[in-house]
């Protein structure tokens, strides 16, 4: 989590390096937050400060809200601030140089803090985008595999049904005493009716038949 204490420590460190003469220029490289799916690598010169143009024409403010259950950001660009002339009758409690010396460190701290917030927002948005992409890919993969599994299972079931139907048709078409056709269920009622019909037609022999060795019934 970015805090003002951390930004103040960084600003003091780079300011001390600059004032001591160890470095003559300080630049910061950070990820500039554009929106939830875009961020740009940017370079900003922190020190030395320019006498004019301290105000940044590209300063922006972001408002984050949740609309319809989704995270949303609203970006508002701030127009360039025009420098104001100080009236001649203004009396300073302290010399202007002293006031400026106390204000510039605060300005430097705010710039460092803004860049840190930009970097953190860019990192979190990139993570969120990556996780959303991974979640969407996982859902798509699960749906694809489920569809393939259902197709293979349906094909196996269809194959089994075809084999069962083919076997049933083969048994129905064959001539012999293999039994009733497929789908026929013997119950006491239809068995009794068949027996009565056979007795009436005389299809039942008066004496039992015995199959001989040559395959004939006697």
Describe the structure using short key phrases:
218 residues, alpha+beta, two-stranded antiparallel sheet, 3 helices, 4 strands
Helix content: 40-55%
Biggest sheet descriptor: 2 strands, antiparallel
Mean pLDDT, nearest integer? 78
Pattern of helices and strands:
HEEEEHH
* Low-pLDDT sequence parts: none
Number of strands: 4
Question: Separation of termini?
Answer: 103 Å
Q: Compute the gyration radius: what is it? A: 46 Å
Instruction: Give the number of helices.
Output: 3
- The shape is rod-shaped
Q: Order of strands across the widest beta sheet?
A: 1-2
**Alpha-beta classification:** alpha+beta
The amount of beta strand, in percent, is: 15-25%
Report on this model:
This protein has 218 residues and is an alpha+beta fold. 50% of the residues lie in helices and 17% in strands. It is built from three helices and four strands; from the N terminus they run αββββαα. It has a two-stranded antiparallel ribbon with strand order 1-2. Strands 3-4 form a two-stranded antiparallel sheet. A hairpin with a 2-residue loop joins strand 1 and strand 2. Helix 1 packs across helix 2. 6% of the residues are buried.
């Amino acid at each position: 989590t970015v805090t003002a204490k951390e930004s103040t420590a960084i600003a003091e460190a780079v300011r001390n390096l600059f004032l001591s003469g160890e470095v003559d220029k300080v630049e910061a490289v950070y990820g500039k937050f554009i929106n939830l799916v875009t961020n740009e690598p940017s370079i900003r010169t922190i020190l030395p400060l320019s006498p004019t143009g301290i105000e940044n024409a590209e300063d922006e403010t972001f408002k984050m809200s949740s609309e319809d259950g989704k995270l949303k950001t609203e970006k508002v660009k701030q127009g360039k601030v025009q420098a104001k002339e100080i009236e001649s009758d203004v009396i300073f409690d302290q010399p202007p140089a002293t006031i400026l010396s106390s204000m510039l460190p605060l300005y430097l701290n705010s710039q460092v803090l803004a860049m840190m917030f930009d970097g953190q927002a860019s990192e979190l948005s990139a993570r969120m985008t990556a996780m959303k992409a991974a979640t969407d890919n996982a859902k798509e993969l699960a749906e694809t595999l489920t569809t393939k599994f259902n197709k293979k299972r349906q094909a196996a079931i269809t194959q089994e049904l075809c084999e069962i139907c083919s076997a049933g048709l083969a048994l129905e078409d064959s001539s012999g005493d293999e039994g009733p056709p497929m789908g026929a269920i013997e119950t006491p009622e239809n068995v009794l009716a068949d027996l009565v019909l056979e007795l009436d037609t005389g299809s039942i022999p008066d004496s039992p038949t015995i199959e001989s060795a040559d395959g004939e019934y006697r």
